[in-house]
Amino acid sequence: KAGVTQTPRYLIKTRGQQVTLSCSPISGHRSVSWYQQTPGQGLQFLFEYFSETQRNKGNFPGRFSGRQFSNSRSEMNVSTLELGDSALYLCASSFKGRETQYFGPGTRLLVL
Amino acid sequence: KQEVTQIPAALSVPEGENLVLNCSFTDSAIYNLQWFRQDPGKGLTSLLLIQSSQREQTSGRLNASLDKSSGRSTLYIAASQPGDSATYLCAATTGNAGNMLTFGGGTRLMVKP
Q1: What is the share, in percent, of chain A residues with pLDDT greater than 90?
Q2: Under an 8 A CB cutoff, do A58 and B100 touch?
């Protein structure tokens, strides 16, 4: 069974631009969560989607948004990029939530 | 609000040693606790998940325990190998916070040949 995939793997953007990251969960998994990892703050929860609905949201500004499609694939968007948005963005999937979560390889975003 | 702490932040041991990694959490209303491994620049690999009703879980050379009353979990690695070198993270799912994982800061382990 294929694991969680994330595209692109690396991105370089400039301040003020926007970016869209994609996550394809393990087949059959309906819950997709997004996390931001930085050296200073560690791993922080962004949001979770289940059956195309946002089920939970972390403490991030409204510039961070996401969505989930009917095939469970998810995208997250960051608008008006700031230098502090440079991070590794990880997504995780699980069957319906509250079981083992499986993480993708991440998208490394660098904002210049 | 759940807070998860891992001490020490870094650990270096010689190959073959048995070792214990510590994880503490502040809210005992956890639903489950997961241990992950992260290699540099990579995603997270799930190692073990312990449900709140369980005391421990084992997988190969790994054994994880959970004590809700004391707010602690430990990950025991037997007969450590250089390939075990990585950052180990614990994360809790708390009763009223849906599927959100609250992560500790991690323990960076180096196993020297």
Answers
A1: 91
A2: yes
The mean predicted confidence, pLDDT, of chain B is 95
Question: Within chain B, what is the greatest distance between any pair of CA atoms?
Answer: 44
Residue of A nearest to B103 (CA): A43
| B99 contacts A33? CB cut-off 8 A | yes
Upstream peptide bond of B8 is cis (omega within 30 degrees of 0): yes
Nearest to B100 among A45, A100, A104 (CB): A45
Q: How many residues does chain B have?
A: 113
Closest CA to B103 of A83, A15, A77, A90: A90
Structure confidence at residue A97 as a pLDDT band (50, 70, 90): confident
Question: Rounded to an integer, what distance in angstroms lies between the CA atom of residue B34 and that of residue B89?
Answer: 8
End-to-end CA distance of chain B: 41
Phi, psi values for residue A67, rounded to 5°: -160, 165
DSSP state of B104: P
d(CA B24, CA B77): 18
Q: What are phi and psi of A47, to 5 degrees?
A: -165, 165
Partners of B98 on chain A (C-beta within 8 Å) are 48, 55-56, 97-98
- In whole angstroms, give the CA distance from residue A6 to residue A27: 14
Residue A85 sits at φ, ψ, to 5 deg, of: -80, -5
Lowest mean pLDDT among A18-22, A107-111, B94-98: B94-98
